[in-house]
Design goal:
With 353 residues, the chain is an all-alpha fold. The chain has a domain at 209-294. Helix content is 85%, strand content 0%. The protein contains 14 helices and no strands. The protein is globular and about 80 Å long. The chain crosses the membrane at residues 7-23, 57-81, 144-169, 212-235, 241-261, 304-334. It is a multi-pass membrane protein.
């Protein structure tokens, strides 16, 4: 087989894999989540195995403790979240009244300064944009209900993911050895070198970024609850958990928190405290959490990460969001390797005289 034919075989295999992933994206969520958890927990299983436990016992212990902690945390948090949501729903009329009191002077001033024709144009424009916003919101709700977060996928996450995690974690080393035996012998060392670098990159980012998100979620949730913001725990936890997208968690939480604070009270004290919490959280993330826990382990620019997340989410939904950064990290490692080879090649230096 010539070099060109080999490239064609690899490209054909890659194309078939991508097509299958796209076609099966609707059922991949519990398997991707289980594989990510197994990857996350594998070092701990290796340590327990070195301590004398069998791989199966170590896997069962780790998986059981991990999901027990998750369930315990959910049991503790869900009643608080439910209480905040119920209280929020009951206070919606007061929010509307507060916003009306805030906006009424502005509306009066606009009526005084604008002509009747300008006011009619403003009403028409606001009505059109409001209709577009409602249509977009309904579309998002429909996509959530019929897409990656449909009830069947939620149930699969609850019941299938633990099973997938257990078997993937138990057989992780066996699978790695089996895949290693399939490598083309001529390029096995090069592939192992690249995979080792990819593994270091992913391990550093996934474990570090997960720690950052949890720390930010706890900081925002506790802080917003202490200052008395309605739905403070929900907004704080949500902001922290989506912080794997650079700046998105802070911006979304900031806008939501400030808007709710303005609707909750006519005083400027609460909005100022909410803003202070998010500014402090951003400083904590930028100066302490991310440098200490993540550092430069991914080697990807934040803009490239945001592009990867948007592209992954657009193509594969929630599964794409889970896979976006790992795939981007793999592409980054392979691209840097290709660049090093190019800089050493005659294509860069030119023919030797």
């Amino acid at each position: 087989m010539t070099q060109g034919q080999r490239y064609k075989v690899w490209l054909a295999g890659l194309a078939v894999t991508l097509v299958l992933l796209y076609l099966l994206r609707g059922v991949m969520l519990p398997f991707v989540a289980g594989m990510a958890l197994a990857f996350f927990l594998d070092p701990l299983a290796d340590r327990l195995e070195k301590a004398g436990l069998s791989r199966t016992t170590a896997t069962a212990t780790i998986t059981g403790i991990f999901f027990l902690l998750v369930v315990t945390l959910a049991v503790l948090l869900l009643p608080i979240i439910q209480e905040q949501v119920v209280a929020f729903a009951e206070r919606i009329p007061s929010y509307v009244e507060t916003l009306n009191d805030r906006l009424h002077p502005l509306i009066v001033e606009l009526k005084r300064k604008l002509s009747k024709g300008d006011m009619d144009k403003l009403r028409t424009s606001v009505g059109e944009h409001a209709g577009e916003a409602v249509t977009w919101a309904l579309g998002v709700v429909k996509q959530v209900l019929t897409g990656g977060l449909a009830i069947i996928n939620v149930l699969s996450l609850l019941f299938i993911t633990p099973i997938v995690t257990f078997y993937m974690l138990r057989d992780w080393d066996l699978m790695v050895a089996k895949v290693d035996s399939w490598l083309p012998r001529e390029h096995a060392d090069t592939i192992r070198e690249q995979v080792a670098e990819i593994n270091r990159t992913l391990a550093g980012f996934i474990r570090g970024q997960a720690s950052v998100c949890l720390a930010l979620g706890a900081f925002y949730g506790v802080g917003l609850s202490l200052v008395g913001l309605d739905l403070g725990l929900v907004i704080g936890l949500g902001s922290g958990l989506i912080s794997f997208v650079p700046y998105l968690g802070t911006i979304a939480g900031f806008i939501t928190g400030i808007g709710l604070a303005l609707a909750q009270t006519q005083s400027w004290e609460l909005p100022a405290m909410v803003a202070g919490i998010f500014v402090a959280g951003q400083m904590l993330e930028g100066n302490v959490l991310t440098p200490k826990l993540v550092g430069d382990k991914v080697g990807l620019h934040p803009v490239w990460i945001m592009f990867a997340l948007l592209a992954g989410g657009g193509l594969f939904g929630f599964v794409g969001l889970l896979l976006a950064v790992p795939v981007a990290a793999v592409i980054g490692v392979l691209s840097r390797s290709a660049l090093r080879r190019y800089l050493r090649s005659s294509l860069y230096h030119g023919p030797i005289p």
